[in-house]
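Supplementary Methods S3. Complex input for the NAP-bound model.
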Amino acid sequence: MISPAIAIIGAGPAGCYAADQLSRKLADARIDVFDRLPTPYGLVRGGVAPDHQGTKNIVRQFERTFQRPNVRFLGHVEIGRDLEFAELAEAYDATVVAIGALEDRALGIAGEQLTGVVGSGRFVSWYNGIPGAEDLSPLLDARSVAVVGNGNVALDIVRLLGKRREDLLASDMARPALEAIAAAPLTDLWLIGRRGPAEASFTSAELSELGELARVSIVLEGAAPEASAQAIADPAAAKVSAKNLEILSGFASSPADRPVRLHLLFNAAPQSVAGEGRAERLRLARTLSEGGQATLLDETFEIPAELVIGAIGYRSKAIPGLPFDDRKGIVTNVDGRVTPGIYACGWCRRGPQGVIPANRADALAVADLVMADLAASTAQGRPGPTAIDPLLRQRAVEVVDFAGWKRIDAAETGRAEGRPREKITLMQELLSVANAT
Ligand code: NAP
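Predicted complex, serialized as structure tokens:
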């Protein structure tokens, strides 16, 4: 049997888990993992909060995957820019799309286009030092910041904004963001849920971390959290909800005299942002949680907010030539199958839900599909790298291989001075470090 060639688009957790499984099970396969960035690991590097270093330990496993002889990392290759999707699909026996979900969902309210209104994806990319991410430092001249959403991403953002400079130095937050956040004249942070505390989607360990912020006083806005307890059918969700309410009640005794007030505001849905050329105020409508929905009430009110961050979920980015469900913001697929020979896994398959290990199950399932289809096919043995490498050379794409990434890694950790790493945030610098031999 001729060895199959498999392409994986995206070197984030879903792509890495798929590469890991396929490279173990198909020792003779040639597996190429493409990523638009010169750095692997997707949201482990670019999404996970920089102060959650423990979560990043998973890269040790992925590192071993890339060291297998049948796996290559082709960083700084963007499908749709450097290679057409059709070229890839033609060259490989199987193509697994694992591009995650990078685009912000819009709040869909008036004033959203004002300077000072950003999505969590833009904000998180900035503080995690993704090359090309917009510099948001100028917006950190805000005294009052509103974070809309009650998921773990919203918690990450308020927690990091609430930290002191010395706390941030213990993280691998990109230096420009760290300095901007440390210098911000912040006095008020708002965490805003359109439903009640019982229906928040954040998890308890993450919620309790808010209570550890040394410069933050927590202010519970509105009714006592326990009053909002709801009958939740799913026992696991009910347990998390009860624990969250207990933690929130504990915040009632938070010290009141600290420099930053973190207002926890529930049952408030954003209506509009207003300001002269820049966000100044966020208008909200009170809501009632009913049957799993937020019903708007007539009462509206405003809070000051020179920076409004929508942390309300993500969409995947369409690749020309790849079937895309624009309404759901995911790759069109049925249980991971897109078209014959094309598969999707991770957030681009099922939407932006679940922690990193959830992508493992997804990747194992897609690897099973790939292996079953390859076993049933008589036509495998496509050229893979033999077709793609010359195209990349002709187009003068500066591909970064795994050894190149390790040079970046060594440079970042080598200059860290006690921090976990001091990230390189400029594309040109990443490429020159990767290609220095
Ligand atoms: P999420 O958990 O789906 O939370 C999205 C939040 O946005 C929900 O509270 C939702 O409210 C709210 N929302 C949606 N549309 C809204 C609108 N138009 N106006 C106001 N609020 C709106 O998403 P996420 O925070 O982006 O997290 C994505 C996934 O990554 C989650 O599975 C999360 O647990 C995971 N993650 C985990 C960690 C960690 O483990 N530390 C860290 C970060 C992310 P409704 O509930 O009312 O729809």
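The chain has a mean pLDDT of 96. The pocket of NAP is lined by residues 107, 148-154, 156, 193-195, 199, 201, 203, 206, 269-270, 294, 311-313, 352-355 (CB under 6 Å).
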